[in-house]
């Protein structure tokens, strides 16, 4: 049976973790991006469908390709971030189910049922995006997730000719708490968000 | 700056964590459910919108209400779990933005734009569901998330007369690794799921 993580770990993952808008001038290595994915991939998805696909935008050229599709308020901080992950979703994820869920014909549960495909892709691709955020924090990186961008533009620039569609973006690096860090916004209390039945 | 978490913590959160189908006969306290939420609530959401709402189904009566809406394969294990969280989403989340995002009129970004409301609710409610899974693992609990149930039936039974809709379910307790634990299914490799641009 597992124990509770240390107070320091709970702080790092949840209580002290913040959405950063400014970044220290410190690179994120390709090795760290691999470490990140190698943790995040284990998070649970429906029928192990694992629909998330990620482009880690790191080079000047790829950042320039991304730039015009960012909302005005997201542009400067994203250009300055060491890495921007385009968290995307493969809407033909079910074609990989013979590999990912070998003990049953899970492909047949989805193929041809477009509403189920799209709902499963969006729900589970989003879950995996959250696992990616938690994995980044777990290895000592900070995140700045964002939804404000032109999804269709990003899809045309990065996923043309595929069944992959962008979901949201995550700036990744080492957050600079001395700049552009908003005060922590309030959260809903347990009684506002939850009940025990 | 943060450090990498311990190997044991990374195992507990990601590498050794499993989706359990059988549960040890050990209760999950209301206090633990509060601890769980008090961590998960800090995970980032778009404009701090925090659309997730949760019913922790714990009593025999509430379990009996849930039971008929479960898919056949999910029923017995869910009835046996100490707690089943109904992870749901408030599609009028934007009415709480004056409280949750006090430094701007974020309510006006959403009100009246139903496609944006629904996309934001589903994406961010799902992110928060993943934070709930990671928070449960962080405090030493195991999870069994599921999508196989009659959402409309659950909504009518638990959320009638509200703007809250069910998203997915999470059985929560202490997993029994000696029963009904499938072998770990394969995951996509980095190169299958990601690229660095």
From TrEMBL, chains A, B:
InterPro entries for this protein: Nitroreductase (IPR029479), Nitroreductase-like (IPR000415), Nitroreductase_HadB/RutE (IPR050461), RutE-like (IPR023936)
Keyword Plastid attached: no
Keyword Transmembrane helix: no
NCBIfam families per the UniProt record, alphabetical: PRK05365.1
Cofactor(s) needed for function: FMN
Similarity comment: Belongs to the nitroreductase family. HadB/RutE subfamily.
Descriptive protein name: Putative NADH dehydrogenase/NAD(P)H nitroreductase CA260_02070
Domain Nitroreductase: 15-158
Positions in coiled-coil regions: none
Record keywords: Flavoprotein, FMN, NAD, NADP, Oxidoreductase
EC number(s) given by UniProt: 1.-.-.-
A single GO molecular function term of this UniProt record: oxidoreductase activity
Enzyme class: oxidoreductase
Listed CDD domains: RutE-like
């Amino acid at each position: 049976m597992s124990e509770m993580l240390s107070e320091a770990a709970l702080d790092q993952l949840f209580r002290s973790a913040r959405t950063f808008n400014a970044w220290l001038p410190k690179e994120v290595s390709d090795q760290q991006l691999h470490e990140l994915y190698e943790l995040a991939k284990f998070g649970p998805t429906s029928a192990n469908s694992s629909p998330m696909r990620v482009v880690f935008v790191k080079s000047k050229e790829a950042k320039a390709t991304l730039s015009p599709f960012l909302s005005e308020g997201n542009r400067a901080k994203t250009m300055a971030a060491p890495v921007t992950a385009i968290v995307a979703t493969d809407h033909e994820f079910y074609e990989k189910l013979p590999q990912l869920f070998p003990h049953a014909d899970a492909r047949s549960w989805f193929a041809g049922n477009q509403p189920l495909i799209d709902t499963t892709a969006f729900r589970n691709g989003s879950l995996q995006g959250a696992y990616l955020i938690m994995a980044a924090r777990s290895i000592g990186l900070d995140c700045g997730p964002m939804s404000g961008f032109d999804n269709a533009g990003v899809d045309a620039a990065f996923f043309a000719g595929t069944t992959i569609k962008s979901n949201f973006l995550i700036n990744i690096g080492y957050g600079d708490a001395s700049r552009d860090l908003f005060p922590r916004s309030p959260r809903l209390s347990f009684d506002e968000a939850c009940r025990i039945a």
